[in-house]
Structure formats: structure tokens, C-alpha cells
## 1
Amino acid sequence: MHAVNAGYAKAILFGEHFVVFGLPGIVAGLPLHATARIKKNNQGIFLHCPWHQQPLNVLKNRSASVSKIGRMILAQLRIPFTKRFLIEVRTTIPSNGGLGSSAALSVAITRALSHHFKKNLSDNEINSIAFKCEKIFHQTPSGIDNTAATYGGLFWFQKKKPKNQTKFLHPSKPLPCILVNSGIHGSTKKAVARVRRRKQKNPALFRRLFKEYRRLASDALRALQNGDLSLLGTLMNQNQELLQQIGVSNSTLNKITLSALHEGALGAKITGAGLGGNVLVLASNFREQKKIQHALQRLGYACIPATLH
Ligand code: PMV
């Protein structure tokens, strides 16, 4: 199923932030991806990604996160820094949108370099390098984004030692969803740090929220397996309430979820780190999916229809 040298975007159905603390999450690959190609260049090692207008000199630029991840991947793959080439990245994934754009970028670059320099890395090796890159981007990632970016598909994820748990799921019905862009850039690093601070300040609240979320995640797994979209929507709404309580929603995101529900959605919640980015909306069928998408577009939000399966 893998496109050559691609890293996939994802939407978290359940459990963003909770996964950072070792609770389970459910995530689905999206039909959006980043791809990378290695091209000739005589001046050194350059990386051109759509976030930067000009190619960055990976060895000389010490500050940009993308050149840091470039150096990290080169070192991991034992590619001599004396080589000369350009890594060109293209992506259809909006950045800072909670859709895993940074992990997809790391996976695409690692795959392209592995392919070009005949390193023959396995998906597991690519995933573990992308996890190291996620640490550069976000400091304390759970591992859910790089896993989704490497493998795609819909799966149950739990951060565990010595090895994260990933169980691929096959929902009995496809999920007609819409991604609704809030138009606000969300920083994963800031959102994760904010949740950690809140947890330190209020451990009792978080104990209660974690307990509620654990129940919700196992109900969601059953609802997916039974193709119970109505229950799944209700659980997404409950997850959104928990996300509000941990402090990663805001008035725009709340307004989008309420508008979607008003238009007949079964469920609507933040997907990804929050404070901006996208809202994931679940419709009861494909006709409703179109109807809700058009209504939200009329309200001025950019939408991407996405059927998760
Ligand atoms: O906003 P994104 O796409 O980077 O998603 C991050 C998901 C979090 O749970 C908030 C962080 C993580 O590492 O799991």
C-alpha cells in the first residue's frame, strides 16, 4: 500500500494528549502525504521543504527544526556529511493542523534517503528514526504520529516500554468524516507542555479524566468493531469534553464542534494537539457527510472530506 518515499498524515479519532501519558489512542491514516526525492546538487547537503521558501543548508543552518532532523536522519543512516545532494520534499498535508505533518515529513525523508543510498531500512527502523525526529520537533511525543506516518491504516496505539503497542483495526463500516480547519495554527509542543503543567497543578482532576478516558477508549474500540457510528459519535463528543477540561480547546474549536453537531453530525472533536488545527467530524452516512461539509464551508471553514477505514 505504500507510495514510494511517502509519509502519511493521520487523524486521531480518540486519545490525543492522553497517549502521551501511556493511555491508549485510536488513529486513522488520511489520504494526504509527504513525499521526498533526492536530486543532484553540487554545493553540499540541502533540504527543500514547503515550509521554507529556499532550500536549507542542512549542515550550516543550525536553528531550523527541519535542518536538525535532516542531520539526525543522515547520522542515523550513516550517510557521510561530505556527500552533495538536495532532498526535495512535497506535501499535501497542511502544517500545524494536528494532522501529523512533521512525522510524515521525517518518514518521507528517511524513506527517500534509505532508498537512494540503498540502506534498505525496514518500516520498524524508519518508524524509530521518525520517533527521534518527533522528539526534535515536539520534545515528548507519544510515538503515535510517527507510527501512523510510517504504516498508515487505522490502529489502536499505546505507548509502552520496551515497545509501543500497535494493533491494526478493521472497522466493520467506513467512517464518513470531515476535517474542518479552524484556520488557527496549533503548536503541538506548546499544547503538550500546557497539558503537562495543568496535570502537575491538578493531579486529582487528571486522575478522574484519565479514568473516564480509559472507559471511553474501550467503548470506542467496541463501537468501531460493531460499526456503531452513532455510539462512536457520542464517544467523540465525550472525548471533546475531556479535551476541553485538559485545556486544549478554544472558542473557535468549540464553535466548530457545535456548528457541526447543529448540522446533524454524530460527533465532533479536536484532532491532534488542539489550540488550533482541525476538528474531526463524523457523519452518519455519505450524503450527510456532503451536507455537513457544505454547511461548514458556507460558514467559512476549509474542509477536507475523509473516509476513514
Ligand atoms: O498535533 P499533532 O499532529 O502533532 O498530534 C499530536 C498528538 C499528541 O497526542 C498531542 C502528542 C503526541 O505525541 O501524541
Note: The CA atoms of residues 172 and 227 lie 5 Å apart.
## 2
Amino acid sequence: MGSLELRNIRKSFGAQEVLKGIDLQVKDGEFVIFVGPSGCGKSTLLRSIAGLEDVTSGAVLINGRDVTVTPPAKRGITMVFQTYALYPHLSVRDNMALGLKQAGTPAAEIDARVAKATEMLSLEPYLKRRPAELSGGQRQRVAIGRALVREPELFLFDEPLSNLDAALRVQTRVEIARLHRQLGATMIYVTHDQVEAMTLADRIVVLNGGVIEQIGSPMELYNRPANLFVAGFIGSPQ
Ligand code: ADP
Ligand code: MG
């Protein structure tokens, strides 16, 4: 179970209103992608869902439960960042295990979950290495592994491929699609890459200046863009 509902989410930083009333419903198991120009509020929206930002008004519901003021660790969500955010002094294995350890998960359970994520992401050869001894693609796989072991109902990804070169981007994208199929988990994913959006998404949410311009399947947006902004973004001929 991992449904999400956003009700009229607003968020201001000082006098600047960054999210101007976002309404969205995401079904359990759906892969939803947020696209939009730099600065339009994509990361702020993800961080608000995760509880890393307090919203100014509105409500966040997960599985029908209002979590608007619930701390991040209690939302059943985990987030994968563009910059990996791994601990440099810890091995790959310990990076994956740390969150579980902090949550008081029994050692045998931690071992089992880390082993499973290691297998799903082919991380076995790297378990004893530190992040500095890995390539960018390997680091991002560790970051995804660290999210996997939490067994969240909802995965949030903030431009997870944007620091990778073209070949690794394709490979990691395919891997994320496979994980989505295998886990059946709900995934919400920010990108500014059209190909990523078109290939991964069940539905795409087009954001612009803190509002939603359009929500639809990749083909709906491509064939019937609501306006010129969406058409320009999705690349459909005018
Ligand atoms: P995106 O991810 O779409 O590029 P962001 O959500 O990061 O956009 O940012 C949206 C706007 O909010 C930007 O104008 C940004 O400068 C501003 N912003 C984001 N985080 C903060 C913050 N912590 N304090 C002040 N302004 C912020
Ligand atoms: Mg961002």
C-alpha cells in the first residue's frame, strides 16, 4: 500500500510563494513523474511529501492517513537524491544498514534486507568499499539500495540520474523501471529529461511556477497537450 494525496499544498519561503495550491492523487503502485523548468518547485514538492519541508498550508495524506505534521522517519517514505548523500566514512554495506540500525531493526533482519538489496542491485563486489572508491553510477546504486532496505511504501527520486553520463543514465533508468515492476511500490520521480519521463511514467505531472499545468499519461500529454507550455515541454509538434 502506498497511495498519496496532496490537498491544496502551498509553500512559501519568506515572501516568495513556491507552491501555489497543488492537488494530486497517486494510486498505490503508480509511477508518477514531475517535470518542469528549473526553479518551478519540483524539489520543494518532493521534500514536502517526504516531510523535509513544512508546508505553509494544505494536507499530505499517505494511505488515507494525514501525515502533514508527521516527522519524515514516520511517513513510510524514502528519498533518493541527485547527489547520492552517502556517508563517506562508511562502507557500502554500512551505508545501506545505517538507517535500519538507527531505527532499531534487529541485526538478523538488517542482514537479510541488505542481502536482498545487494542482490537486486548487483552490489556484492562493492560491499566493503567506501563511496570514494566507487563510480558515480555505483554510488547511485548504493543510494537506491539504501532506500530499498527501508522497504518503503513510497519512493521519492529527485533527479537521480542527472550526475551520470549518458550510458549510465540509460542503464540506471532501466534498473529503476525493473525495481518498480518487481516491488510494485509507488514511485514519484523528478526529472527534466523528457526521455526519462516518457519511458518511466504511468502519469506525468507538468509543473510551472508552482502550479500544475497538466497531469496525464505520456501519450495523453504528447497527443493532447493542454497548452503551448506543455507542448513545448513534451516536444509534441504544434
Ligand atoms: P526545482 O527543483 O523545480 O528546480 P526548487 O523546488 O528547488 O525548484 O525551488 C523552487 C524555488 O524555491 C526556487 O526559487 C528556489 O530558489 C526556492 N527555494 C527552494 N528552497 C528554498 C529554501 N530553503 N529557502 C529559500 N528559497 C528556497
Ligand atoms: Mg530540484
Note: The helical segments are 42-50, 92-102, 107-120, 136-148, 166-183, 194-200, 218-223, 228-234.
